[in-house]
Structure formats: C-alpha cells, structure tokens
Amino acid sequence: MRPLIAGNWKMNGLTEPSVALARAIRHGLGDASVEVLLCPPATQLASVTGIVEGSGIGTGGQDCHAKEQGAHTGDISAVMLRDAGASYVILGHSERRQDHGETSEMVAAKVRAAVKAGLIPIVCVGETESERASGAQEAIVGQQIAASLPEDFDGVVAYEPIWAIGTGKVPTSADITRMHDFIRKELIRDLPEGANLRILYGGSVKPSNAAEILSLPEVGGALVGGASLIAEDFLAIIRAV
Ligand SMILES: O=C[C@H](O)COP(=O)(O)O
Asked: How many domains, in total, are found in the chain?
C-alpha cells in the first residue's frame, strides 16, 4: 500500500486561503508516489474537493455524527461528507476526545457510520504526557483501540501522542516503532487477510523530521497538522517519503 500523507487543517481556512493552499499543493505535487489527502474545515470541503479533482489528491472530513440525518443542530453526517466529495474522515482526534468529551464508544459509532457511508475512517489514538511518563501508553492506546474500532476494522489508525501535537516534541524513532508494532498486533488478530491497514504517525511532523519518521518500516504515513497549512512544508513532507 502507498503511504498516506494527510493534512488536517483543523479549524483553519477561510475561502481565499483555502483555495490558494489547495491550488498550491495540487500544482506543486508532481508525480507523487504517496497518497495525499486534504482535510479542510467542512465549510471548505466541497470547494477544495473541486480544486483537487482529477489530481489524485483526496479530501476528507475532520469528524462526523453517528447518525445519517435528523435533529442534530450544528452536526454533519458521514453521508453529507461523502456528498461533499470526501473519501476519508478523521475520527476520535484527541482535540475532539478532550474538548468535546468524545468517548471511544462514541468514536466506534462514528466509525460504523463512516464505513456505511462509504468513507474510510482515520481513527486517532494516543496517550497524554503523564500517561507516557507513567509507562501506561500501551495500556491507554490498547483500550482506545479495543473500544473505538470494530473487530473487522479495515481503515487507517493514526497514532498521535497528545503531548506531541503542536508542541514540536516528537517521540524517538524507537518509541514510534514500538507503539506502531503494538497497534498492529492489537489489530491484526481481528483483521481479515489482505486488509488495508495503515498506521500513520501524527504529532509535530515537519519537513525537518519527516524523512526519519516516514522511513520507519512500521509507519504507513503521517497525519500532519500545522505543517499542512503551508504548501511548501506539506509538499516537503510528501517528498520526504
Ligand atoms: O491531526 C494532526 C495532529 O493533531 C498533528 O498536529 P501537528 O502536526 O500540528 O502537531
């Protein structure tokens, strides 16, 4: 499987800068040997999808509701994301788990909705700084995987240590490898043969560290936050694969 480099724009992107960023990435990409995904805010999803159409670059949502439709003011369903052109959706990001009280059970319901709508879920897991300091990282990530993913999960998992997100701190290559191995072993026993499992790393991925992180055999790509908002940086990360 090709590595996946996904840009999570988070809550950034008015119309003009979003259009400019998507165009710059499209035009700067060339023949990428990796799969590239842009996850803009929902308000920009349809227009960014239109800009990258035909380029091989995909688009994704940053969250979805577990239901298809109904009286859920302010929410967006997986079907709506699909309708706006998305092929992926990020689920269970720590910013949603922490800021919106999302539990792994809620994430699991969203994963089911996403798959039903034809989207590939990118499910985020990761430990806090104190959980790592106490050596509990595998227990925490193991619990998140067990409760967030269905037994036959065949999508993407993103390992994002919470303490590495937007901080400039990055785990050592040995720690990333150990955790990715652990996640693969947790998942593999329930996966059908030939499953499309990819495990991404996320957390302060930059042009300066991308080559080292992405050269680790266990790492199937990256979920990039801040650096995905600067076209040259995001393109440099893609080229580092
Ligand atoms: O979804 C992306 C991650 O939260 C990483 O964000 P960051 O690259 O700004 O650390």
From this structure: 1
